Amino acid sequence: MMIDEKPWGGRFNEPTNKLVEEFTASIEFDKRLCQYDIEGSIAHCMMLARQGIISGEEEKKIVAGLKDVLRDIEAGEITFSLDLEDIHMVIEKTLVDRIGKTGEKLHTGRSRNDQISLDIRLYLRDEINRITGLIMALKSSILAAAKKEIDTILPGYTHLQKAQPVLLSHYLLAYREMLDRDEERLKECCRRVNVMPLGSAALAGTRLPIDREYVAELLKFPKVTTNSIDTVSDRDFVAEFIFDAGLLMMHMSRFCEDIIIWSSGEFGFVEISDSFTTGSSIMPQKKNPDVAELIRGKTGRVYGNLIAILTVMKGIPMSYNRDMQEDKEPLFDTVDTVKGCLHVLSEMIGNLKFNRKRMLEEAARGFSTATDVADYLVMKGVPFRESHRITGHLVRYCLEKNKVLSALSIEELRQFYAGFDEEIYRCLTVENSVNSKKSYGGTARESVLKRIEELGD
Predict the structure, then answer these.
(1) I want to staple 197 with a disulfide (CB 3.0 to 4.6 A). Which of 231, 233, 359, 372 is the partner?
(2) How many CA atoms lie within 13 A of 233 on its CB side?
(3) How far apart are the two ends of the chain, measured CA to CA in Å?
(4) Which of 159, 275, 409, 439 is flagged as catalytic?
């Protein structure tokens, strides 16, 4: 390519070194923005014509040409060349080759600096909508499982030690609450994404009589950016999205970690369908939770993307710098990773078989109803700290005698507190323990059913 064929080549005397072209080119990854680049270019062209900067005939020619270019790109009929650097230059060069000098008027009043910001915002706006749709599907899968397991009791853990019995449905809905927050965060992020940057040009705006509000209207942006320097410098919305995606991945990873542990022989709480597991190349007996493990692993990948974009942005001076080209690969990878994980996890949840008998047996072990004994004593008028000590002494006694709380006679119980009566035995069943937790947000069956009803879907 001749020097002057570069859109910026007029100032240069020597052609770009081929190594530099390869090193600086972004076309291999930003080509996925072609739809948005052309969508933004059409709106920009329509504005230029409305403002009298180009003629109506030129507008028609450019718009028709852009639509043809998009159709041919989507059909795979356009070759992407590294010497054209990026998707903007590929589209512009192809347009000029097809419609002639008129195509060179398209870039009037804008820069690649505000153009790429527009493309990314249009892209991310769509992808956030797709991701929130996948979150809703995952929430529906979790809610369906919660309804199915409304009577299933399992041991709840703190510090990975048995703590208190809870309903499996309550446990599942805890993850749904996390996903509600994830969805809310992404929608909030989308508000900041959904601001129209075009018209900021390189960094100072333009002297041409453009109409930014009209472009915003065409592209369905509710508002425009207010500072041209900040506009071309800003990748906060990219970092914010990846951060939100990182929290979403963390929540999926925690769920997968539980499923991985629960599916082990040591726990035996759940069996994952064969269709969502894999085997070993050497050990014929193995059934590995690879889907859950990969989601857990890919979480670190998204965290890495967040660190990458923060590191890129942390030290660059105002305003646009080429470093910012490094925003796209972390962004695109995050979008692809999150969407893939959401989709497969939603399907996997529908293919889990919980071992209700095993869960119930384990829920009854480990003195999981000890807190219920303490609460019983509080209801008898014993101060909580004293009831805690009494119950602790009971547990120690059981450990010494190799007994469980429910096996203690009333005479043994009264050695520690004279006011014990037969009602204590009702407190020691896991079913009564669960259903006594009627405080708002608790694990009692009636509370969980009420929450399920609130959730509706």
Answers:
(1) 231
(2) 13
(3) 59
(4) 159
Tokens representing residue 236 in the block:
């906060």
Classified as helix, coil or strand, 194 is: coil
Question: Does pTM surpass 0.85?
Answer: yes
Indicate whether 279 and 329 sit together in one domain. yes
The one-letter amino acid code at 5 reads E
* Structural domain count of the chain: 3
Q: Is 170 a catalytic residue?
A: no
Q: What tokens appear for 152 in the block?
A: 């299933």
Q: Is the peptide bond before 346 cis (omega within 30 degrees of 0)?
A: no
d(CA 307, CA 284): 40
Diameter of the chain by CA atoms?
101
Query: Based on the domain organization, do 10 and 151 belong to the same domain?
Result: no
Q: Are residues 237 and 124 both part of a single domain?
A: yes
- 431, amino acid identity: E
In the residue annotation, 439 being an active-site residue is answered as no
Does residue 338 sit in helix, strand or coil? helix
Single out the catalytic residue among 264, 273, 280, 393: 280
Count of other CB atoms within 10 angstroms of residue 411: 8
User: Per-residue pLDDT tens for 330-367?
Assistant: 999 999 999 999 999 999 999 999 999 999 999 999 99
Q: What is the pLDDT of residue 272?
A: 96
